[in-house]
Amino acid sequence: MMRMGLTLLSLLAAMGAAPVPPLPVPPIPPAHPPVEQSAPVPNPDLQGPADASGKGPQLSFTDFRLDRDKQSSLGYSPGSQFQTNEDRRVIQTPGLSVRVPLQ
Fold first, then answer.
1. Which residues contact 3 (CB under 8 A, 6 or more apart)?
2. Do the beta carbons of residue 55 and residue 101 sit within 8 Å?
3. How many CA atoms lie within 13 Å of 23's alpha carbon, on the beta-carbon side?
């Protein structure tokens, strides 16, 4: 057992003392860079996509139940989670969501 440990230690020491492989040669820039092309810059006149939704208020029915499946950092063991009274209900009370654009 002692021989195997010393062999492993000497093998690791030999591998650690191996020479570092050389780095690749970086690309050499051209002697005369092209002058007809400028560097790329962001387009200041660029506009985002047009809003496809209506301009007026929007009304929708939603379920406001929180998705707690992705909260694994709360200190509970895997597969368990805190359950509120709202989570214990079989049927959730639907909610009403209203969106009003601010323009």
1. none
2. yes
3. 3
Do 99 and 57 meet the contact criterion of CB atoms below 8 Å apart? Answer: yes
pLDDT category at 25 given cuts 50, 70, 90 is very high
- The model's confidence at residue 53, banded by pLDDT at 50, 70 and 90, is low
3-state SS string over the chain? Answer: CHHHHHHHHHHHHHHHCCCCCCCCCCCCCCCCCCCCCCCCCCCCCCCCCCCCCCCCCEEEEECCCCCCCCCCCCCCCCCCCCCCHHHHCCCCCCEEEEECCCC
